[in-house]
């Protein structure tokens, strides 16, 4: 079934010049990028995006980080796109992410792990509604 997922190239990846590499991997896999925009998000959007983590000790740092510079937001679509993008991204902790995944190949810090991808179809639709309300 074709699905939609929200992908973010986080500010660390934009700063490091890895936006093109992330896009290349998504395209090479065969998923479609149907919306793409670079933007610097507000704290309000960041807090809504990460609302499920509001009670975690890392939440304040997470909001600071995701608003620390421009990010690139995308809607990615395709068969199994939610789980497929999680595979391309690798585990949340880059030190545990498999080599060959984006986090496994390019990151070491759990706080600055380069990419976001929705973890379920429902969360994907919620996050797409937040970033691309007209999509
Ligand atoms: P994911 O981004 O793989 O979906 P998540 O939803 O559990 O992971 O957490 C959201 C982000 O919060 C994650 O990408 C990085 C940050 N984070 C998670 N666990 C953390 C921790 N133990 N310390 C610092 N930051 C953390
Ligand atoms: Mg998550």
TrEMBL record:
Protein name as catalogued: Nucleoside diphosphate kinase
Primary role: Major role in the synthesis of nucleoside triphosphates other than ATP. The ATP gamma phosphate is transferred to the NDP beta phosphate via a ping-pong mechanism, using a phosphorylated active-site intermediate.
Any one GO MF annotation of this record: nucleoside diphosphate kinase activity
Catalytically driven reaction(s): a ribonucleoside 5'-diphosphate + ATP = a ribonucleoside 5'-triphosphate + ADP; a 2'-deoxyribonucleoside 5'-diphosphate + ATP = a 2'-deoxyribonucleoside 5'-triphosphate + ADP
Subcellular location: Cytoplasm
GO biological-process terms attached to the record: CTP biosynthetic process; GTP biosynthetic process; UTP biosynthetic process
Chain residues that bind ATP: 10, 58, 86, 92, 103, 113
GO cellular component, one term: cytoplasm
Designated gene of the protein: ndk
Catalytic-site annotation from UniProt: 116 (pros-phosphohistidine intermediate)
Entry keyword set: ATP-binding, Cytoplasm, Kinase, Magnesium, Metal-binding, Nucleotide metabolism, Nucleotide-binding, Phosphoprotein, Transferase
């Amino acid at each position: 079934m074709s699905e939609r997922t929200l992908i973010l190239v986080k500010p660390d990846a934009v700063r490091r010049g890895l936006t093109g590499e992330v896009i290349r991997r998504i395209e090479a896999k065969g998923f479609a990028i149907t919306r793409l925009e670079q933007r610097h998000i507000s704290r309000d959007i960041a807090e809504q995006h990460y609302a499920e983590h509001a009670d975690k000790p890392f939440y304040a740092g997470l909001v600071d980080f995701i608003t620390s510079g421009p990010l690139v937001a995308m809607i990615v679509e395709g068969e199994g796109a939610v789980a497929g993008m999680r595979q391309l991204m690798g585990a949340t902790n880059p030190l545990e992410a498999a080599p060959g995944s984006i986090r496994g190949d390019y990151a070491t810090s759990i706080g600055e792990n380069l990419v976001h991808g929705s973890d379920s179809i429902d969360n994907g639709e919620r996050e797409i509604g937040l970033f691309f309300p007209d999509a």
